[in-house]
Amino acid sequence: MNNTEEYDDPILYDKENESYLPELPFLLKWASKSTGPIIDLACGTGRITIPLAKNGYELVGVDIHKGMLDEAKRKSNSLNLAIQWVQQDCTELDLGLTSTFIYSVGNSFQHFLTNEEQNHLLSSINKHLKHNGIFIFGTKFPNAEELLQPNTEEYWRSYIDKETSYKVDMYTISSYDSLKQVQHYTTIRKYYGTDGSIIDEKRTNISLRYVFPKEMERLLSTHGFEIVHLYSDWKETPISQNSDGMIYVCRKIF
Asked: Tell me: the pLDDT tens digits for 135-183?
């Protein structure tokens, strides 16, 4: 799977995402019901792995991207946290252990673009879960507003780069392939100097697969999971037609 351009700069990723932790209270609640090691799939730089480990849980962080894992290791070492970091493709997991709790956050499920990749991913997860083990993941809800965005440069958000004090404006351009259910995104970052002029611009590309709720129901069932809960966000808001996300809590039943 080669869809990782957005993650080629781990430092930039952390600047934009590290402090964003909406999943943490929800995952801590489920972690408290688990025993043994917890597996974080597509863990990146450890945005959620590290806070869970700080709370005393045994964590295994898995990612395909060496650069992201190297940054995760650096951060966990500086905190003296004994997290096991593993570079593997999540569709071909071979960790030599089973868990009562596996999770994947950051809409990572959408990085698996084909039916075959989704099948291999869920088979890998099932293989590493104990019977009645819990798998939790989030993905974007494929509502009309999400999919039918104009194919033009749209403002997304801004932040201040702490190192340079530069203001950064972020824009996206999206194009949806309805046959493949894949949205192609270009993210544009515009860096402003002290005089307000643009001094740099960076573009990255990513493609994300969308899965509709009934399709997901069948997919999970086929791979031995029952859906225990389905929410629209990490605050356990009920799912609705106006939801932006889908948070699945699944149990392995076979």
From this structure: 999 999 999 888 988 899 999 999 999 888 899 999 999 999 999 999 9
β-bridge pairing 198-209 and 225-231: unpaired
CA distances from 239 to 18, 134, 143, 228, 248 (A): 26, 20, 12, 13, 10
Contacts of 175 (CB under 8 A, 6+ apart): 151, 183, 184
Q: What is the mean pLDDT of residues 58-75?
A: 97
Q: Do the strands 198-209 and 167-177 form a parallel or antiparallel pair, or are they unpaired?
A: unpaired
Letter for the amino acid at 29? Answer: K
Q: Which residue has the tokens 């629209």?
A: 232
* Residue 205 Ramachandran class (φ > 0 left, ψ -120 to 50 alpha, else beta): beta
The burial of 170, by beta-carbon neighbours within 10 Å (0-12 exposed, 13-18 middle, 19 or more buried), is given as middle
What CA dihedral angle connects 27, 29, 31 and 33, to 10 degrees? -150
Nearest to 104 by CA among 122, 77, 120, 116: 122
SS (H, E, C) 84-107: EEEECCHHHCCCCCCEEEEEECCC
Q: Per-residue confidence at 2, pLDDT binned at 50, 70, 90? A: low
Indicate yes or no: pTM above 0.90.
Answer: yes
Nearest one of 229, 41, 251 to 126, comparing CA atoms: 251
Assign 3-state DSSP to the chain and report helix, strand, coil percentages, each to 5.
30, 35, 35
Q: Would you say residue 1 has pLDDT above 70? A: no
